[in-house]
Amino acid sequence: MLDDRSRSLLKSLVEHYIADGQPVGSRALSKFSGLDLSPATIRNVMADLEDAGFVASPHTSAGRVPTSRGYRLFVDSLLTVQPLEARQMGEMEEALQGRPVNQIIASASQLLSGLTHFAGVVIAPRRAPSRIRQIEFLTLSEKRILLIIVTTDGDVQNRVLTTEKSYSSAELVSAANYLNQNFAGMDFEQIRQRLSVEIMQLREDIKPLMTQALEAGDAALSENSAPYVISGERNLLDVEELSSNMKRLRDLFDLFEQRSSLIRLLDVSNRATGVKIYIGGESGIATLDECSVVAAPYVVDGQVLGSVGVIGPTRMAYERVIPIVDITAKLLSSALSQQNS
């Protein structure tokens, strides 16, 4: 446990570093901490904090910067959150009212990015599993087949299958007819269960096609089961800690595009009450080791439907970002509840 003096100095160091991004020296701390301590005493305390893993010394500077562990202690026990002004909350509420659901979700993402100047993410309400209206196979080349899936809600998904053998047009029509006659109106999980029983009755040469089509179709529709909206990714180009490393920045944008890892991370926050904060490596996603994610679930009729979040550098103004995420989640819950009423 840190004593009060160490905690006060750590708090001052984190706040000062967040404000200007420069390593903080002992003289600056003696000036900004408000404590009647000499620079020599502060240096000793800083050395102890460094030994404990709360701060680190960059090679090019005599000052110190907070580590992920230092940020964690700061967020958990030293931070004073700034409530949002009533005027700003009113503007946020107005931006989410009286719109279709997809526009409400997009507006929430834009609010998060616009107010924090980082990336704003919203995991939209998960839709019920899509049910199949029709499946069709079209020959593209000798061993490449286009799988076309039409769902009962009118969604159309196309996937290219690469097969080990070539199929005639008659075989593809026969396979599609079998699926349409036996499985129309079912979702892919129901089809999977039925087909696992009935597949033994199929011709040996058609079994691989059925299995491949099932896996590809399930994957295609699952991608849309949790729509993912992100705004303000380009804001991160202005963050020196991230933009100074082009590989890290490319990896970060790849993460946004691939989205599955980020969706899983935000899904975990659905089980939290209130705001959940991942600092550095706490996310378990290597690409986010230099980032923090502040997320919160939103609820309609007592059920968690999704989550909102902000992605930015570990050096972020947590006292401001946390209430923005918290209020956005609450306002989104309210706006979607009105849609259901």
Automatic annotation (TrEMBL):
GO terms for biological process: negative regulation of DNA-templated transcription. InterPro entries: GAF-like_dom_sf (IPR029016), HrcA (IPR002571), HrcA_C (IPR021153), WH-like_DNA-bd_sf (IPR036388), WH_DNA-bd_sf (IPR036390), WHTH_transcript_rep_HrcA_IDD (IPR023120). The keyword Transcription applies. SUPFAM superfamilies: GAF domain-like, Winged helix' DNA-binding domain. Residues 103-322 form the Heat-inducible transcription repressor HrcA C-terminal domain. The keyword ATP-binding does not apply. It comes from the Bacteria. Keywords: Repressor, Stress response, Transcription, Transcription regulation. Pfam families: HrcA (PF01628). GO terms for molecular function: DNA binding. PANTHER family: HEAT-INDUCIBLE TRANSCRIPTION REPRESSOR HRCA. Negative regulator of class I heat shock genes (grpE-dnaK-dnaJ and groELS operons). Prevents heat-shock induction of these operons. Belongs to the HrcA family. This is Heat-inducible transcription repressor HrcA. It comes from Candidatus Dechloromonas phosphorivorans. The gene is hrcA.
